[in-house]
Amino acid sequence: MIFTIGVLSFVIITIVIGIVVSRKVTDVEDYYVSGRNASTILIAGSLIASFFSTVAFMGEAGDAYLGYPLIMLLLSSIDVSGYVIGAIFFGRYIRRSRALTLPQYFGERFNSKRVRRLSAITTIIGMGAYLVSVTQGISLLVSNLLEIDFIYALLIVWTTYTLLTFLSGAKGVLLTDTIMYFVFTVATFISIPFILKKVGGWPEAISKTAHDLVNQPNILDWHGITGEGAFHGMPHEALIWAIILGLAWTCVLAISPWQTSRYLMAKNEHVILRSAVVATISVISIYIILFITMATVNLINPSIDPPEMVFIWSAKNFVPTFIGVVVISGIMAAGLSSASTFLQLIGNSLANDIFNLDKQIRKGRPTTTLRMSKLLMLMSGVVVLIITIFPPPAVLWIGFFAATIFAASWAVVGFTSIHSKRVNEKSAFWGMLLGLVGIVGGELFSFFIYPLPVYLEPVLIGVILSVVGVIYGVRTGEATSEEKDYLKKLLTAPRNLFDRKEIKVTNRFANALIIFGFIIIGFTFFYYYYPVNIY
Predict the structure, then answer these.
(1) Which residue segments constitute the domains of the chain, with CATH numbers given?
(2) What is the pTM of this model?
């Protein structure tokens, strides 16, 4: 009963926040980009919260429980570099564009309607699929806690994040993302010691997990479980998979719309750089304790079904009730924050880049634009609701597929749009299109015809085809004067970038990241290596 009350209370609080913040939304810039004055904590909170959806706390946690904690940690250790890489080489330039959406940026950068619409379609497909995944995850959680049918849980979840996004737009999403970031971060770090204590305590629990699990040998080896019936048959296949997906997710964090769109809302470029550092530190800190600890739950219960519920099951059975409520609310917070972000991006791209409602702003009709944007946002939500009802839950697979669409379709075009003078409209269009066709075609082939080997991951096929498309465009076309002028504007640094006080503060964040690197090495040695190899 206490878990039911906790979840319902959290839903009510989320809706109330949306109603309160909606009163402060006065124009399109507020609704789309929160007035472009967000602080470091708001940007960092939104980056982390929109990333740590149910894909992390349910899908990836379930994968760690099934036997792959270290390989998931390896993947994550690679991909978190995307925050800093993206902020330095892409995000800060995007803010200079003053665009309302990422597709608008691509359209203006290449002076092309077809590039803008193609990137908008990619956004809608990718974010739509990811939203389905996240909605499934939260609905499974609510269904399990309230002991109600999945459909009713889905309606509760959908209504919550749709109302929040519909009413308050980017302002509400930024605020709730940050609140939710603190909730699930505190919940994770408080609950882990209780879970470890129940399964035997540190270092005994980790040592026993590594050496005593007969049904899951090698679970804490770097490659996880291998052999017949395992997800990865051989250790080298696990390594190749982690590296390819890790690099793909590096591109996702660096350039995907639900991450880099946060930079459009930042107060200045120093905020972008600082928030990337905070996100890097926060994400890897949570992952390292979450994955290894979820593997130890096998000592008590090796048959949690579905495995995505492992963290939730642990919160209900291993930790004090109040903390368990906070943990489950935190997981729900992560899911709702991601869902609201994804729905916002879908609605914004549909309104701004497919129906070109930004023309209404230029005609002096901002109220009409805001009203239509909200209507299209609601319609997008209804479509997602209908789609989510039918497919069986596949939280991790759908989430990974949806996110890596942007690595395949956008990464090459995005980075070259800033750092190449030769890339042009033709390059951008064919690079995006071939990347999208490559990953979608690869996934369909692997699913319906024949599973592709690990070294031919669909995202890798997409990236290679995207490179081919960009090279083709460079060889057969030229950048126009409009494209060159726009690039020149992007490369012109704002004055506040050289403010000495701002630089001094930003340098402190950079130094903190360096120090954190040494701390995490030491922590990993004592938390993991010592129990497994020395104790």
Answers:
(1) 2-22+53-534 (1.20.1730.10)
(2) 0.90
